[in-house]
Design goal:
By secondary structure, the chain is α/β, with parallel strands linked by helices. Helix content is 38%, strand content 14%. Helix 4 packs across helix 8 and helix 12 crosses helix 13.
């Protein structure tokens, strides 16, 4: 077995740090770090063939959709790995969504099928594993919901003490319930996510907590597994576009890095174009993109029903900009109405996802309508979280209880008396879109 070396490297000044040093930002210039792999050594392994051999393996840890690619993610000894397992999520195609978006070829990868219901499990398995390698005892994060659920589950599964910081009253209950159920010590911060993020970084430095937000480069390594697996599902044929929502920008950052590495390894010839979609009320990357990134704009009080991307000061801004530039990508914003209508379409197709996920589909539709994406392009999109992460958003949309939102595709429950005649009358009044059972 070839020994594979890694190190941490500042993305700005190039300062190097050993892999076993607990550090989240460069000590010289304060910028983010990358995990750097020895690409030349990895070329000796014929990774594409190795990954294909492991496909659908039942052997630990390769049954995981992250650890199947461990050589290019985190090549540690198996004894350290904490996995549930994660990944192996499906690619979906839907005639209804093709019609809705105007796309001729569309596949949606549903990361809501991970163990805790979101893509965060991909990054958390590598983050918690690295904490295990380092001998850390306490892991911590700030969260709008999904990170807290994932950290609580993986941290407790690995035997760690888990500390979580969330913005009070600004987290979907489906996610809060997971953090509490899994046993995370949860602190509700009077403020927004960005306030919680500032506190957890300060606390990690002072109290020896191992920080597992996406500022931790090891977490992003696991999230590369999303696109590695997607490409493997497509027999390593690269689509024209990959579209994803943008909040703290960890996923888009990981995707760009993953595509770059696959290109350097010769597994793909070029990356897909990456489109990052933000909510109109929480759109710092979009606003910066409109200046061609000459200005780094932040949003002090982000607002959106898509709580998973309700972040005004994303920590991975610089890496996300890098992804857009590397892939000749784009950034778009969508309204609350567009997000919720797209969600109704995703849900109504029998797939289902939380609001932030459906920014992806809203963005695909908008980019096709504006001609940025050609209707004939092969488009892949990432759905980041499970439908049940935010049930209130779903119910309130269909019950017309969300202010300033028109429930364009409402499926309101019908109240009837408990007898067959009442049922027949109600069925006869059903709309043309509904199945006519009673003639």
């Amino acid at each position: 077995m070839i020994k594979i070396s890694m190190h941490q490297k500042c993305i700005k000044c190039g300062e190097n740090y050993p892999i076993n040093q607990i550090i989240y930002k460069c000590k010289k210039c304060g910028n983010l770090l990358d995990i750097v792999h020895d690409i030349e050594k990895l070329k000796e392994l014929n990774l594409k063939e190795l990954f294909n051999k492991r496909w659908k393996s039942r052997q630990f840890p390769f049954m995981s959709g992250v650890w199947r690619y461990k050589e290019i993610i985190l090549p540690v000894e198996d004894k350290f790995i904490i996995s549930r397992p994660e990944g192996n999520t499906n690619l979906y195609s839907s005639k209804n969504l093709l019609n809705y978006t105007g796309c001729k070829w569309l596949r949606l990868k549903h990361e809501g099928e991970n163990p805790t219901g979101s893509f965060k499990d991909r990054g958390m398995t590598t983050g918690v594993t690295q904490a295990n390698v380092l001998g850390s005892k306490v892991v911590a994060c700030a969260s709008t919901g999904n990170t807290s659920a994932s950290l609580a589950a993986y941290g407790k599964f690995g035997g760690f003490k888990v500390i979580i910081f969330i913005p009070e009253g600004k987290i979907a209950y489906g996610k809060l319930s997971q953090a509490l159920a899994y046993g995370g010590m949860t602190f509700q911060i009077r403020g927004n996510f960005d306030d919680a993020m500032a506190l957890v970084q300060e606390a990690s430095a002072e109290l020896n907590l191992y920080l597992l937000n996406s500022v931790n480069a090891f977490r992003l390594e696991g999230q590369k597994g999303i696109v590695f697996e997607l490409l493997q599902q497509l027999n390593w044929e690269v689509p024209d576009w990959l579209v994803c929502p943008g909040g703290n920008l960890g996923n888009s950052s990981a995707f760009g890095k993953g595509f770059k590495e696959l290109e350097e390894l010769g597994i793909i010839s070029s990356p897909p174009r990456v489109a990052i979609i933000q909510a109109e009320g929480s759109n710092p990357l979009y606003l910066s993109y409109k200046t061609d990134f000459k200005e780094h704009i932040e949003v002090d009080n982000p607002e959106t029903i898509a709580t998973a991307i309700k972040i005004g000061k994303p920590v991975n801004y610089t890496k996300a900009v890098r992804t857009v530039r590397w892939t000749n990508g784009t950034v778009e914003q969508v309204t609350e109405q567009e997000i919720l209508d797209a969600k109704a379409q995703v849900d109504g197709a029998g797939i289902g996802a939380e609001p932030a996920s459906c920014a992806t589909v809203a963005g695909i539709k908008k980019l096709i309508d504006t001609g940025v994406i050609d209707r004939k392009d092969k488009v892949t999109g990432i759905l980041t979280g499970n439908l049940l992460k935010d049930p209130d958003a779903t119910v309130n949309y269909h019950m017309n209880k969300i202010p300033n939102i028109k429930p364009t595709y409402a499926n309101k429950p019908i109240v009837i008396d408990a007898n067959l005649d009442a049922l027949k009358r109600a069925l006869k009044k059903s709309t043309p879109e509904q199945v006519q059972i009673v003639k």
